[in-house]
Amino acid sequence: MDGFAARYPAVAHTFVAALDDDVSLDDEAAHHLSRVRRVRSGDVITAADGRGRWRPYAVANVRPGAVDLRAQQPPVDEPRLEPRLVVAFALTKGAKPDLVVQKLTELGVDGVTVVAARRSIPRWSVERAGAAVARLGRIAREAAVQSRRARLPEVDGVLPVSDLERRPGLVVADPEGGDPASLPAPSTGEWVLLVGPEGGFAPDEAAALDGDRLRLAPHVLRAETAAIAGAALLATKRTQAPEPPA
Amino acid sequence: MDGFAARYPAVAHTFVAALDDDVSLDDEAAHHLSRVRRVRSGDVITAADGRGRWRPYAVANVRPGAVDLRAQQPPVDEPRLEPRLVVAFALTKGAKPDLVVQKLTELGVDGVTVVAARRSIPRWSVERAGAAVARLGRIAREAAVQSRRARLPEVDGVLPVSDLERRPGLVVADPEGGDPASLPAPSTGEWVLLVGPEGGFAPDEAAALDGDRLRLAPHVLRAETAAIAGAALLATKRTQAPEPPA
After folding, report:
1. A116 shares its domain with A203
2. Which residues of A touch B229 (CB under 8 A)?
3. pLDDT digits (tens, 9 = 90+) for B18-48
4. Would you call A89 helix, strand, or coil by DSSP?
5. Range of A97's domain?
6. Taking the model in full, what pTM does it have?
């Protein structure tokens, strides 16, 4: 048992507030299980707390608007993947932040940060940014259910690019950068992959970014493709953290 | 000069029937250049023949519905990337073949093959399949313009999975497979990455697939994410073909 909820033979996955022996769901999670996944009594599902612990449950009862679960085993700690991986992507004209957040979550990132670069379009107001980031958080949660993750990625923003200039572990997506094979492991235990807007960063903005440069593909990538491809490339360079000493 | 049209300092890219010294465009390409990219006389663009040659042109004239180009240099041969890379993906419920074809084209694949697996939904009729594949070809062309490719990927299908069972260079996306780092180079000079439908291949279908197994990510990926992530991973293992002997 390597601890990955995604490999447990379950028919569905959900998030719960606490991994108690008996859990009753009566919200969106119940709707998802009963109406979308069509679980029935006796089916085995996995439930996670969003912070790295998960537990197999049997469906005890499906009632109108509610699903009752009964634990089958003690909770399991999901091993962390190292280094941590955060992807920061610049809002850009025609960009698809929903698509990016969904795909990054499937690919196992620990965090997604929305960035406003000089050439970013649109510029979100503070109020609109707050609502938009909250919505991206819900998209991440849905994707984490689909991908059977035990941890929810942190979604935050909107940050100016300057906030990331000297961030330890910074990796800048750059068509003139190096290959993934030659990217060193971060001394901080975390990579922060920064993907610029359509048309790239402004020259002075790019010059101020103190990080490794990574080439993602031989051709020109749309901003959302760069974020997804970058996450896929760095994901394969991550390994399971060793068990903490007992 | 490494030959990559994508790195030439041009404001736009297009495909032309022949790389003549003087070219007049009067179709969708003219519309794209004049209305979407808003090129003006004197701007430098690149044009490719779709088969690996490209050439820089200056915009000589923008007329209603037409754009005239004047070559700036002799044609350039784009180096091939080796091994060749074809991605075959199974139609699947909720899948987004348009998204997959667009992203695979950006990531530089040589071919995209649409596959019908046992668990594929929907099953396209022969007539509908023909129209759908033709439409995917147009999406690939648009993405190749965006990515400034010199070669258009071949889009074909719909093939039954059994047609790929013994295909040389077959690589099967599989959560229990090996890491990209341990994937051997194909003896045939071509990888054919096969991505199954949502829920995977049927057991006998999977057993008949005679190829290397490749794990793409630690978590469960939607079918379209698997195709995109797989293309990104294999793209970084490709290198420029040496110049052919003169």
Report:
1. yes
2. 107, 228-229, 232, 235
3. 999 999 999 889 999 999 899 999 999 999 9
4. strand
5. 81-240
6. 0.90
